[in-house]
Amino acid sequence: MTDMVNAHPGRTDGNGGHTCRTNCEKWGLDYGEYHYHNGGSSGSGGGSFSGSTSTVQPSGPSPEEIAEREKSQGEKDGYAAGLEAGYEGKTESPSPTGSDAYIEGYNAGYKNGYTKGAKKLETDKSKAQNEGYEFGKKNDSITIPKAYQNNAYLKAAFEEGFNKAVSERDELKKKEYNKQGYNDGKKDIYNEPKDVKDIYIKAYKEGYEKAQAELKETYLQQGHEAAFKSLVYEEPKLDNAKFIDWYKEGFESNKEVKKIKDAAYNLGLSGEQYKIPQEYVKAEKIYRHYYEKGFKEYEEERKEDTAKTAGGTGIITLAWLARRFYVAKKMVS
Known about the structure:
The protein is an all-alpha fold. It has helices at 63-88, 100-136, 146-149, 152-186, 198-226, 241-252, 256-269, 284-307, 313-332; strands at residues 17-19, 34-36.
């Protein structure tokens, strides 16, 4: 032991010695080494000493006791660090330094502290999310409370709750504006909402366009059905020009009517007895009209054939065959 120990600071115990805990190497000691000042003659109240230092005696804390104290201190330090890391959601593992006992205690303490910190974080995240949700039910813009600003997880939980509430409010509002647009569309009145979110305007337009599409389909169908009953287009008694256009479009789009007209005309032209197929009953007026038209031509051609009998049987026969060929061709077309 060198004379540097003479100036080594620290209070001594009743034996005039103590365990080195601070700057031990500076004084030529090992950390945790028990030693005496002034040959063990000083009392417990000593603070700074002079004179030679006696040889370290075997009395004082045992290595086991020192290890236990260091382990205990490690547990405290590790617990505090783990508590903070768990609450902040950190995942990296710590790398403590010190004696084996201290490291052992630190690791055990860190694990316990981390578990408790993580559990507290989950509890506070739930609280932050609920607070964010309540805030979002009444506000469109978010303001993060100071208590959550420095913790990324709590901040995110608050934002999540807020966004959920705003989203729910938006969905309800969108349904309201969509319904409003639909009702206006049915009335053919466009009244776009002002000073509202774009998503609300979009919802209104979607409702309006849906109603307009249904309205158009209604008038298209009316015109389509009218084509089965009218020989010529007749403009409906409607005040709205757009509805009239839709009605006419439906009338003119009925391609089935042309088939009915052709079938009726060819039946009459063939001279066959009038008989309307079941699938054409809905257009009986049209079918009868074109049958009669065809049948009238049939009768006129028969009269012409009769008048030509003076020309001889052969001519009549050829005329009859030509006529039948013409009728057959008409029916095919």
